[in-house]
Structure formats: C-alpha cells, structure tokens
Amino acid sequence: MKDNNLNNKTYYSFSDYVKNKFGVKVGKISIDTDFGCAHKANNGGCRFCNLNSYKPPYIAEENINSQWINGVNNYKRRYQKFYAYFQLGTPLSHLASKESLMYANKLIYFDDCVGLMFGARSDMLEEDVLKELNHLAETVNKEIWLEMGLQSSNDETSLFINRGHDYKSFANMVNHIKENYPNLIICTHIIFGLPKRLIEDKKLIELESENDMLKTVKDVSALKIDAVKFHQLDIVKGSYFENMYKEYNFPTLDEDYYINLMSEAIALTNSNIIIARLMGDSLGDTLIAPKWNKSKVEIINLITKTMISKKLYQGCKA
C-alpha cells in the first residue's frame, strides 16, 4: 500500500480507500461455507466468540450463489460494487480451504465483485493456499484480503482468551506473506477490553490496561500490514465468556472510555494503514454487555470530534 494523504481527515478510512480506488461505494457480502471454526473444533475456540453473533440474516441458504445474490439485493441501494467476504469460521483452514477456493474462483469473476476477503488464522494458513490466492489475485487483477485476527500482542491475554497462538508466530506469518506473496492484502483485527487474568480470591476478571492495549497498536503498526480493524470486547450469548460474566466481576469498557482510547489508538497507527473498522457490532439479541447508549454512528462521530479537539490525526504519534 502506498502512503495516503489524509486530506484534512483524522484517519484513513476503508470507505476513503475504496472510493479512491474504485470510484464508487463498495460493500461486503458475507459468504458462509458452513465449515465452522477449526480452532473451536480442535481446541475449544476463542473464549469471546460465538459465530452466530456475526452472521447476517441474509445467509439463510447453503448455496453460495444464493448467498451472494441475497447479499447484493440486500445492499444494492447503498453500494455499487462488493467484496465477497468469507467471514465466518476458518474458511482457509485445512478443513475448509479446498471448498472455499472452489467458490472463490467463481465469485471473483462476477462483474460486481471487486475482490475477496477471507477470515484467516496465522497458525492455519498453508503454503499451497497462499500460493493459489496470490496467483489468483495477480491473474484476475482483483484484491484478495486476509482478515487475520490477532486481538492482542500480549501473550498472557492470548493465553487467557484461548487464542491458540502467540504474537511472535503471528508477526512471523505476516512477514512471510509480505515477503513471498505480495499480491495479498493483510488486515489485522484488534479487540480492546480483553481480559488477561482471573483473580480467583476476589472473583475478579482483570482486563488489559490501557498501556497493554496501546502496545498492541504499536506492535501491529510496526508490521507490514495494510489495514486494521478495531473492536470492543462484546460479551455475547453462547460464548465461553457468557458464563464467566455471570460468575465473576467481569468489567467491560464504557463508551466514553472507548472513544478516548480510540483517539489515542488512531494517533499511534501509521498513516499508510487503512482503518477498516472503528468498533464492532454484535448482531440481533446476542449482545449481553456492554450495552452502550450511543449508536455506532454517534460513537464514530465522537471519535473524530475527540481527535480534532486533541489535535490528533492518524500517525501523529506513530
């Protein structure tokens, strides 16, 4: 990715990126190959996750073409072009990659498809899959994104949330991809408000400190990633953390804290990195906590206003 010009904006957003590149509004259509999460099947999965909390209502059919058509019909008033987003589970694990690649090789040729996005784990990416995706991106001249979850660079946190890998192995995979598969775009996911330890005698879940969370931003910003997504930790129904939330004192971030935290996080993010998301939003009635009073749009607008008031902009502290 080339360095961008913020043009008096506080951060380099995904909407700015796609508008500059494609000249139109571009949305994402979730595709579900229904293989689930290999990490959950093998090792219990990440403790914060319930896949159904991310599943859009238009994914009601198993047929991939129908999922695409339903998604286009759902969003065609808002967007002119789309990414096919293999979002749910681990579509590039050894369990699912063969079928995912089969569908990918069809969807990428659709006229209204500008590229593909894959949910990816750094510990499950295989060389032959990376090679095929890199070749496909070059051959078709369309984008292929790897949405690689990290969540935190703090290994104590990663162990507590049962992430399944450490920071060093994640960073090594990012470097490996960038050195050997230059046509692939890497987007890293970070979650703020994660717990890192249980203090049993106090029945208390201790969250990462602000320094912990901002160190993750610094660590990720030092890597050769192309984009980043920020999320707050949501306690959702059906997750491991649902039971911990009921049993222990499990604090969550409030919206004012998150707004101020995000203003600092953006300032620490290199200006050439696309900020693809500023906050998460669990779907339907799956959310247990935190239940914020402000809407997503209001919070995003307040992050911008806070940055302006503090005279901050993306990369100014990087």
Structure report:
This protein is an alpha/beta fold and 318 residues long. Helices cover 38% and strands 19% of the residues. It has eleven helices and eleven strands. It has helices spanning 14-22, 38-43, 64-75, 97-107, 127-140, 155-160, 167-180, 210-221, 240-247, 255-268, 296-309, and strands at residues 26-31, 81-86, 113-120, 143-151, 184-192, 195-199, 204-207, 227-232, 235-236, 274-277, 287-289. The strands form three sheets. Strands 1-2-3-4-5-8-10 form a seven-stranded parallel sheet, with helices on both faces. Strand 6 and strand 7 (204-207) form a beta hairpin. Helix 8 packs parallel to helix 10 (255-268). The mean pLDDT is 93.
> Biggest sheet, in brief?
7 strands, parallel
Residue-averaged pLDDT: 93
Seen as an oligomer or otherwise, the chain set is single chain
Number of strands: 11
Uncertain parts = none
Q: How many distinct helices?
A: 11
What is the alpha-carbon Rg in Å?
Answer: 19 Å
Q: Write down the overall geometry.
A: globular
Sheet with the most strands: spatial strand order: 1-2-3-4-5-8-10
Written as H for each helix and E for each strand, in order along the chain, the element string is HEHHEHEHEHHEEEHEEHHEEH
Class computed from helices, strands and strand pairing: alpha/beta
Helical proportion, percent range = 25-40%
Portion of residues in beta strands equals 15-25%
Q: End-to-end distance, in Å? A: 17 Å
